[in-house]
């Protein structure tokens, strides 16, 4: 009896269909629909060409969270943060997070029973927070100057080492930026520079807690003391905004006795990025003010078309509530003890890596990871290759270690930087060191003399 071949009821190999045989339009909508699995595979495969986020040592942004946090965030993708009347639990969680941040920074007039006592808001990262802090300072300057403010040009004093969002703020909102230059060996601003730059049209001074370029802490207490003396001597009352995007969730736990926040009376507002050392996936930030008097009422809008009377003073409107939920998870999960343990662990790893680089014959250390867990360094002498060559060599191992030139006043200085984040273990640090040794050995033999100098990866 002849053997009968039975056809399988369904054979559909993943890569023999239309997606594998014909290109999919990438700049216009496709004509036809596709199966969910096929669309997933198409996008998933293209994303494999990205670098590994865990090996991206250029970014300050969180690349690992607990699975439980990821589950909570996935469950709340669909909740619009702005709909506070429809999602009261999410709104309450946001208010609690703002209160916790304000308390961490020693804001005034807080209450254990009333979260609305804290003056602040969650934002889409520190970029939006910076805009709000800058606008509040500009509006308060206008109130102080009076009706003739339109004939004057407000200015903002800050270092040339500020993040680019401060440049955006000044350009978008007609404020003159007064950049204080760096110099070789000094990559933060000084009180003397600040005093030379401020005048009666200065809306504020920006001081950075953890600079993007090196991770250093600017001398905030000394700057405030100099401005206090200026106010006493000349009656010039200049507020300070602290850009704590990188250091705001580190310094309170690593250096709790360092006074940089609202313990200094001259500090009126602070921004911080929850998606950096707040340990939450992007994008989540916060801006908090010392008290409600430092947020002008003119910046607050009230709408009722979403249900209820809702004050709003953010630049963005609709956004998902899951980032706030993720931040709240971290606050409850870790508490002060947990954040302290995480930051001490990251600092220990960063300082170990810094010690290894300092002890090598190749590098001069700029920051050793003790301020915040960031290590910045440069090549010694003229080895026949540049920091850009080192950065490119590390990419062949998967590591993304940025090389970049320093800001105005020190543009001839080139720096490499490693940001140690949650998920970058001591074992990975040892692997990076071993790969660095291999790369340096190759460069010592090849001496490419800056072959990759034109490749400057973005260093956020």
From TrEMBL:
Taxonomic classification: Bacteria, Bacillati, Actinomycetota, Actinomycetes, Mycobacteriales
MF terms in GO: aromatic-L-amino-acid decarboxylase activity; glutamate decarboxylase activity; pyridoxal phosphate binding
Annotated family: Belongs to the group II decarboxylase family.
Keyword Lyase attributed: yes
Classification via Pfam families: Pyridoxal_deC
Keyword terms: Decarboxylase, Lyase, Pyridoxal phosphate
E.C. designation(s): 4.1.1.15
Catalyzed reactions per annotation: L-glutamate + H(+) = 4-aminobutanoate + CO2
Required cofactor(s): pyridoxal 5'-phosphate
InterPro entries per record: Glutamate_decarboxylase, PyrdxlP-dep_de-COase, PyrdxlP-dep_Trfase, PyrdxlP-dep_Trfase_major
Modified residues (N6-(pyridoxal phosphate)lysine): 276
GO CC field: cytosol
Keyword presence, Lyase: yes
GO biological process: L-glutamate catabolic process
Name the UniProt record assigns to this protein: Glutamate decarboxylase
């Amino acid at each position: 009896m002849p053997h009968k071949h039975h056809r399988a009821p369904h054979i559909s190999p993943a890569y023999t269909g239309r997606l594998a045989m014909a290109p999919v339009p990438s700049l216009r909508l496709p004509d036809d629909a596709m199966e969910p699995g096929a669309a997933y595979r198409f996008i998933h495969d293209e994303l494999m060409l990205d670098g590994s986020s865990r090996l991206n040592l250029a970014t300050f942004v969180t690349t690992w969270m607990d699975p439980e946090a990821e589950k909570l965030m996935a469950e709340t993708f669909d909740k619009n943060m702005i709909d506070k009347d429809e999602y009261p639990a999410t709104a309450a969680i946001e208010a609690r997070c703002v209160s916790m941040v304000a308390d961490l920074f020693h804001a005034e007039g807080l209450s254990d029973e009333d979260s609305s006592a804290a003056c602040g808001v969650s934002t889409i990262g520190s970029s939006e927070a910076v805009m709000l802090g800058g606008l509040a300072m500009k509006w308060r300057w206008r109130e102080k100057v009076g009706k003739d403010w339109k004939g004057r040009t407000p200015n903002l004093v800050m270092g040339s080492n500020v993040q680019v969002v401060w440049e955006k703020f000044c350009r978008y909102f007609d404020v003159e930026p007064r950049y204080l230059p760096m110099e070789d060996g000094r990559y933060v601003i000084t009180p003397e520079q600040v005093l030379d730059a401020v005048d009666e049209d200065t809306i504020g001074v920006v001081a950075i807690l953890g600079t993007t370029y090196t991770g250093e802490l600017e001398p905030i207490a000394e700057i405030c003391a100099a401005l206090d003396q200026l106010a006493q001597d000349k009656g010039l009352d200049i507020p300070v905004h602290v850009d704590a995007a990188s250091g705001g969730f580190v310094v309170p736990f690593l250096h709790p006795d360092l006074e940089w926040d609202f313990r200094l009376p001259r500090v009126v507002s602070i921004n911080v990025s929850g998606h950096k050392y707040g340990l939450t996936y992007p994008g989540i930030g916060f801006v908090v003010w010392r008290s409600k008097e430092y947020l002008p009422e003119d910046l607050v809008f009230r709408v009722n078309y979403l249900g209820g009377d809702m004050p709003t003073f953010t630049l963005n409107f609709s956004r998902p509530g899951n980032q706030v939920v993720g931040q709240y998870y971290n606050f409850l999960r870790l508490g002060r003890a947990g954040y302290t343990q995480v930051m001490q662990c990251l600092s220990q790893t960063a300082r170990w890596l810094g010690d290894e680089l300092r002890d090598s014959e190749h590098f001069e250390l700029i920051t050793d990871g003790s301020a915040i867990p960031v290590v910045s360094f440069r090549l010694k002498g003229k080895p026949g290759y540049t920091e850009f060559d080192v950065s490119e060599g590390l990419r062949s191992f998967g590591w993304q270690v940025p090389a970049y030139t320093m800001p105005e006043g020190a543009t001839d200085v080139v720096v490499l930087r490693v940001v140690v984040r949650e998920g970058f273990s001591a074992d990975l640090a040892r692997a990076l060191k071993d790969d660095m040794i291999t790369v340096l050995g190759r460069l010592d033999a090849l001496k490419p003399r800056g072959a990759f100098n034109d490749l400057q990866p973005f260093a956020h």
